[in-house]
Every structure is written in C-alpha cells, then in structure tokens.
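Input sequence (341 aa), recorded before submission:
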Amino acid sequence: MRVDLFDFALPPERIALHPAAPRDAARMLVLDGVGMHDRAVRDLPACLRAGDCLVFNDTRVIPAQLEGRRGEARIGATLHKREGPRRWRAFVRGAKRLRDGDTIDFGAGVLATSTARGEDGSWALDFAGDEPVELLLERAGRMPLPPYIAQKRGIEARDADDYQTMFANEPGAVAAPTAALHFTPALMAALAAAGIAHETLTLHVGAGTFLPVKADDTVDHRMHAEWGRIDAATADRLNAVRARGGRVIAVGTTSLRLLESATAEDRRIAPFEGDTAIFITPGYRFRAIDGLLTNFHLPRSTLFMLVSALMGVERMQAAYAHAIESEYRFYSYGDASLLLP
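Predicted structure, token format:
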C-alpha cells in the first residue's frame, strides 16, 4: 500500500511533553461497533466486559542513551537491541567518524569498541570490562526519550519514573510500552472488581519503533527485529480466556505484535521466545487479539498502519481528525484510544 495513505497533519501543540497526572486521568477515545465515544482511561472497567483479559508488556526501559568521545570527536549512541552478553546494536550519531575497532569513552569508566557496521548504518558496540552492561548504563546512560519529546524540552529527572510503567520488571527496552503508562494500582483494582483479568508478556522495545518509514510503499519497508517471550502458562491462560468467551485485549502495539507472532492460524496462542519483526498493515487477519488499547501515533508510522489494519484506514483517519479537533494529547505521554473492532 502507498505510505501516503497513512499521512495526516498534526499541529505540534498536540504532542504531549509530560504524562497526565494522575496517569489514569488521561482521555480515551473509544471506537467500537457502535461508533466513537470520548471517555477517560479510568472509565476502562465500564468499557470492557467481565471475562475479558488485558495483556501488558512487562519490559523495563534501560538508560540506553549514551554520549561519549572517540578522541576529539563527539559520539552519541542509542542502544536498540542486545546481540550478546556485552554487545548491543546501536544507532550512532556521528557514525561517519567511526571505524571498525574504535574505542568510545562514554565517561564514568564506560568504554565500548565499535564493530560490525550494519547495512542500516547502525554499529555493534562491545562494552569493556566484567561488570554487567546494565550497571554500566546506570552510571553513564540516560533515559532514551522519544526524539519528538527530547528535542523539545530535554530529559528531566522525573522521566526516570514517568517513562516506566507500573508493570516494568524485565530490563531490556529502549522505549516504553506507552499504552501501559496510563495504568495505576487503583485502576487495576477497579478492573479486577469488574471481573477483568490481566496477563503479562515481555517484548523488549527497540529504538527502531521511532524510525520513519522512508519507502513509498509498505512492501519496501523493513522492520527491525525485537526480542520477546510468552511462557507456556501465560499462553494457556489466554487460550482459556477465549474458550470461556472472553476477549483478549492487547495493551499497546508491542503486546499485540508479540501475541500475533505467537499465534497460529487456528487462533491458539503458543509459547514464544525469540525475535519478531512482524509488520502489520491493512489486509492482515488478526488471530490473537480482539481489541487494543493504544496511544495516538505518528503520521506515516508503522504503528498508525497497524491500527488502520485493525479498524480500517478511513475510520482511523476520521478518528484521528476528531482527536486533533478535540485537543487530545498525542504520542508517548499522550492520551489513549480503545479500539474494539
């Protein structure tokens, strides 16, 4: 499909620079079989049914933004995928100054060697020493805020908490599964009281999620792979939800993409561990999920293509036009949409 079908004009002032407070006070646009409704995230228990199950991503964002030097040259690196115990693939600012085997000093005693330049311009970075890389990043790294936030206001101390979900448990992501940022213990208690269950899986979100689609046609776009896991017990419980007549509702496109990667044509969810580079565009037949809670996405992005695959391009264009006119807040720290096809 032509990528320009997924374009729309977004006023810059609609981009949220901080999350709602409290988190579940964010607005929520509901699209279902009846129409379009303006609600709030804290209304979610009333928008779902007893027996439904929400699926969250429990990945934890690591401080994956690094600033360093190779000699006199300044080098910036955003880690996006682990390739070994001490090796991370990274998008590098100042990459033209790097050669294979160069040492980059990121400060605080953190050194890495550049190697294996990829076709996409990324570099593999091998971190020196014996300390776990996670500890090195805690010393030298910063939270990897999306560029559309970081370029407007910089990274603040509060982002260390604001950019983690309440489910964050498994370190490895370089971007938050932002739909889950809206959830609070009070909202989870209300959902449980309404008979709505929840499960967790792990998908370590990579920085590739922010890369623009440069191709003119979706068939020519290549997704970056991300590592994920669904254990056997979780898969069994989700299949049981369906067997009882409940719906599986993904919280975030990351949960959705991993669930779809793990599900066969017979709609049974299987255990999964490994990489996925699934790219969902209109025409895709969803097997694992019956709905999605997600934030509002960038024009021409793979994520807007995904929600258009779920609900239809024209319907999503109309919904986003309504959200812009109604002053919904967009992107990672913005408001939510509940999509129930």
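Checked by second reader. The chain has a mean pLDDT of 95.
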